[in-house]
Amino acid sequence: MTIKQSIREIQETFDINAIYARRVFSLADKTKLIEDSGRIIGEKPKPFVKWVGGKRQLLKQFRLMNLYPPEKFDSTKGRYFEPFVGGGAVFFDLLPEKAFLSDLNLELVTTYNVIKDDVEKLIKLLKKHDHNKEYFLNVRAKKVEKLSPLQVASRFIYLNRACFNGMYRVNSKGEFNVPFGDNKKPLICDEVNLRKISKALKNVEIKHQDYKQVLKKARKGDFIYFDPPYHPVSKTSTFTSYTANGFSEKDQIELRDVFLELSNRGCFVMLSNSNAPLIIEIYSEIKKDGIRISKVEAGRAINSKGSGRGKVIEVLVTNY
Ligand SMILES: C[S@@+](CC[C@H](N)C(=O)[O-])C[C@H]1O[C@@H](n2cnc3c(N)ncnc32)[C@H](O)[C@@H]1O
Hints:
40% of the residues lie in helices and 13% in strands. It has 320 residues and is an alpha/beta fold. It folds into three domains: 1-44; 50-104 and 209-237 and 245-318, Vaccinia Virus protein VP39 (Rossmann fold, 3-Layer(aba) Sandwich); 108-196, Adenine-specific Methyltransferase, Domain 2 (Adenine-specific Methyltransferase, domain 2, Orthogonal Bundle). A seven-stranded mixed sheet has the order 3-2-1-4-5-7-6, with helices on both faces. Strand 1 (80-82), helix 5 and strand 2 form a beta-alpha-beta unit. Helix 7 crosses helix 9. The chain is globular. Bound molecules: S-adenosylmethionine. The site of S-adenosylmethionine has 21 residues, from helix 5.
């Protein structure tokens, strides 16, 4: 069997994407390939935070549509970039060898880096958390600027696990403002998973920066996935803020221009967004440059009361 055939066999047996299948192949004992691949896949880390807009449930659909990952992307040469990483559902699905992750949310990026570099100390600290409403409110009220990176990470994970619906949202001052949750026994310290993540992040660079910085590093053959804050479908739809600044119409247009520039450079580019008229309009303008717009149906909870649950159409833009 050739290497290509072996990778395909792993991919089909375990119903996983091609990039991750290649990684599994490189790690597995070739004398018992399928058995050992199963063991490696069983050890795969999961995202450590629940993030509004998380992509986990959509990935299989993207794959079935043959849009993800890009078929011609060679993960042994090209690098993976995720400049709006959030909870990192796509990164954790692909687990590429070489990756550059970034986000404008400083506490989130600090947490990724603490997990990467200092996981044992973090686990110790997480185990010390109490769980009741008064304690939660005290932790939430702490001034993040006064905390060490380790304390920031411990607070971030605790709040995400203990808050209502486990979601992340900040007010206009950038302060976390989700109320106390109703789960009596949330799993605050998933130490096994945190250690797996720490290992998986070893060759990964995680930076606090604006998405445009990707233009400085990306080159031909790299794969860039953009998952920006979604443009609201209507003026009344709930808006969830991840950072104090939000993401305006002008930001969406600038992002479209960055998308096109990377595409012209020879990168593989993929972007998700809402099915808002603005998004369709601005990406339709670059269809002549070989850009495709595909629609996907997502079952998604869009607000905390649950009244916004149901099927929503989302857009996937690709240059391949
Ligand atoms: C839709 S979420 C990403 C969700 C993620 N794909 C997941 O699976 O969890 C958008 C992310 O963009 C970040 N963000 C907002 N404006 C940004 C900017 N100008 N540059 C980089 N990141 C930004 C937010 O902090 C948030 O984490």
